[in-house]
Amino acid sequence: MPTLVFAGEGFFQPNDAAIHSFLLHEGTLVPSRVTKHSGTFPMWLSVDPRKRFLYVVESTGGEETDAGFVHAYALGPNGALTVLGTKQNSGGSVPCHCTVAGSTLLVANYVGGTISALPILADGSLAPAGCVIDHGVGTGTHASGRQAKAHPHMITTSLDGRFVFVADLGTNSIIGYTLACESEAVPALTKHTEHALQESAGPRHMAFSPTAPFAYVLNELDNTVVPLAYNAEDGTFGAITDLPDGGKIVALPEGTPSREFGGASEIIISADGKFAYCQMRFTGKDNLLDAVSSWAVFNQIATLSLDAESGAVKLIETVDSGGNMPWTMTFAGAKDELLIAQNQHTSPSKREGDDGGEGSGPGNVVVFKRDEASGKLTPTGVSADVPSCVGICVVELP
């Protein structure tokens, strides 16, 4: 079964944005082609369940008034991409995540503080957003001020597709919606639940267990993972009161300098539901302002064990991400035997005054071998350079 790996190039670089495609063959990354991307920052890539179309969110700037866009591509042989229709406004600035839900593309706009729903037409192209919801002011209290307004960071669906959930760093909560299509297939999102996390947590991403009634939230501002009980019938979450501190853990080893000061980016769960993996980047000026002495670079991938009975989380180990600024990762293989991770740079910057968000050298895509029994990761030595790499996506074809 051929496997394609797509990686976005460009971090607010209007002249260099591109999408790289690779063939994953016997654990190696074989470059296939590079498709010039008309946008500036292909931050997140998402494929439809039938593996026909690729959707890419484009961040054009960092200001609240800057529009973001979404692009649609048709998937062709060996990673060929063909533009479908015209790019559409994402409904807010700095879109950072998108998910396909039936005939709708859901988008989270981080700086704009909004989420949107765009109709997917029969040919895979996108129509203008039929629904845009503003999450408004933030309700978090983090000292950095990053929770002064809403910052939706991830939008996803429940495993059965009945509900939509948003991890919002600014509101410090997971917000749930129902999705319906009104006349002429115009999507509509209706809020139906909200679950608050611990103070100053800053939820960034979440993942559902595929085998147990739990969801796991990764919090960017304090580097914690919090298990939640999930009621699939009504689409609501609850704290797990049987576990100390609700089962919350920090996803870095004890003794790690500044390990609770933020920097977490991604969480994914293996298909057997036994293990979760978290990317941990750095803590610096965004979270600690002028507290330079507490800045720290992590660049780690944490392996966590998940208890299917209680929902409990346990840190097993961390491994080096293979570069600097790991934003996202995904599995490959029938049993998730490979983990594909991204790094924005080759190494952290050495310049005085820079934190872990700055780096040197091209970014990369790195391949790890995953042990099914222990969950542990081993670097395979396989990687591919992708300048200023941020978003990645794996497509396993029949």
Strand content range:
over 45%
Strand tally: 32
Query: Which overall shape is indicated by the principal axes computed on the Cα atoms?
Result: globular
Number of helices: 1
Task: Name the helicity range.
Answer: under 10%
Low-confidence stretches: none
Major sheet description: 5 strands, antiparallel
Structural class: mainly beta
Report the end-to-end length measured between terminal Cα atoms.
6 Å
Give the rounded overall mean pLDDT. 94
Q: Please compute the radius of gyration using only Cα atoms.
A: 19 Å
Fold and architecture overview:
This protein has 398 residues and is mainly β. Helix content is 1%, strand content 50%. The protein contains one helix and 32 strands. It has one helix spanning 285-288; strands at residues 3-9, 18-25, 28-36, 42-47, 53-58, 69-75, 81-83, 88-89, 95-101, 104-109, 114-119, 131-134, 152-157, 164-168, 173-181, 187-196, 203-208, 214-219, 224-231, 236-239, 249-250, 264-269, 275-283, 296-306, 313-320, 329-332, 338-343, 347-348, 359-360, 364-370, 377-385, 389-396. The strands form eight sheets. Strands 4, 5, 6, 7 and 8 form a five-stranded antiparallel sheet that branches. Strands 17, 18, 19, 20 and 21 form a five-stranded antiparallel sheet that branches. The radius of gyration is 19 Å and the shape is globular. The termini are close together.
